[in-house]
Amino acid sequence: MEQGSIEELLQKAEKLRSELGGSQDMPRIERNLKQLEAVGKELWSRTAYNTSRDSCDIRASVLLGSKGYDLQKVSQHLESLSTNKKLPIIEHPKDSYDVQSFLKYERENAVLSVIEEVKKSTFELVDNNYWDYMNKDWNEYKSKLLNLFVNAEEFEQSAIVDNRNLDETLKRLNASIRTPQQIGKSIDEHELHDIECIINQILTDKNRTNYDEDVNFIYNLRDHHNRTIELLNSHLGSLVAERKVEGSKRERIELFTIKLAEKLCNEGNTAEKETIGVFYLLLDLMTFFDYYHSKLYNDALDTIVRLNILPFRNVDIKLKINQFAQLSEEIRRNIPEILIATMNILYHQYKEARANASQPISKFGLINENSNEEKLCNEIRQKGKTLITYAGMVNYRMPGDTSAKLVQLEVLMN
Question: 20 to 30 A Cα–Cα from 3, which one of 47, 156, 178, 262?
Answer without folding.
Answer: 47
